């Protein structure tokens, strides 16, 4: 039995972004309940050389949209990185969910063998088959940043657990 690239990507991104939305909702409620400046959470990081919460959510959502677009063979939509609030982050995730939810599953039919070329933050390009791009690059990077966002909030006392992280499936 084979599993399609669409099934391995879009539902996973939707589930995990839904979980991230719930974690962010709980973080905002936590800040209100504890009378914390929301910026204390939004700018929190696990270690000085790591991205803060805002950037972790931006990058996780970027991976969801860009990996999906490349696998579908469509242009990667530009989303500005100008979020400053929990509401901004929720809106960003909603934008990405709308984009990936609107992708035609048929666009993924040849995705496993489609050549994907990236230049991730360096002048060196990387070449992948679609399957390798999703399994060895896209999903691991997406999960890293989604997990880091969750971990920042959990470390800062937001009462979230595995069920929140995983979202609805």
Tell me about this structure.
With 169 residues, the protein is mainly alpha-helical. Helices cover 60% and strands 5% of the residues. Strands 1-2 form a two-stranded antiparallel ribbon. It starts with a helix and ends with a helix. The model has no long low-confidence stretch (mean pLDDT 96).
User: What's the pLDDT, averaged over the residues?
Assistant: 96
What is the total number of structural domains? Answer: 1
- Overall morphology: globular
**Beta-sheet strand percentage?**
under 5%
Topology:
Elements: H1 5-33, H2 38-42, H3 53-72, H4 86-101, E1 115-118, E2 126-129, H5 130-155, H6 162-166
Antiparallel strand pairs: 1-2
Helix pairs in contact: 1-3, 1-4, 1-5, 3-4, 3-5
Question: Quick gist of this model?
Answer:
The protein has 169 residues and is mainly alpha-helical.
How would you describe this structure in keywords?
single chain, 169 residues, mainly alpha, 2 strands, 5% strand
């Amino acid at each position: 039995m084979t599993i399609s690239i669409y099934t391995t990507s879009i539902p996973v991104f939707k589930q995990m972004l839904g979980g991230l939305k719930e974690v962010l909702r709980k973080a905002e409620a936590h800040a209100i309940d504890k009378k914390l400046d929301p910026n204390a959470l939004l700018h929190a990081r696990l270690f000085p050389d790591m991205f803060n919460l805002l950037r972790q959510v931006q990058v996780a959502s970027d991976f969801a949209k860009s990996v999906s677009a490349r696998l579908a063979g469509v242009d990667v939509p530009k989303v500005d990185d100008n979020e400053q609030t929990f509401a901004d982050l929720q809106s960003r995730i909603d934008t990405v969910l709308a984009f990936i939810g609107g992708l035609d599953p048929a666009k993924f039919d040849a995705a496993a063998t489609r050549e994907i070329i990236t230049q991730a933050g360096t002048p060196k390009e990387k070449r992948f088959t679609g399957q390798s791009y999703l399994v060895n690059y896209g999903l691991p990077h997406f999960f890293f940043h989604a997990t880091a966002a969750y971990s920042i909030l959990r470390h800062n006392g937001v009462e979230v657990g595995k069920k929140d992280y995983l979202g609805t499936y």
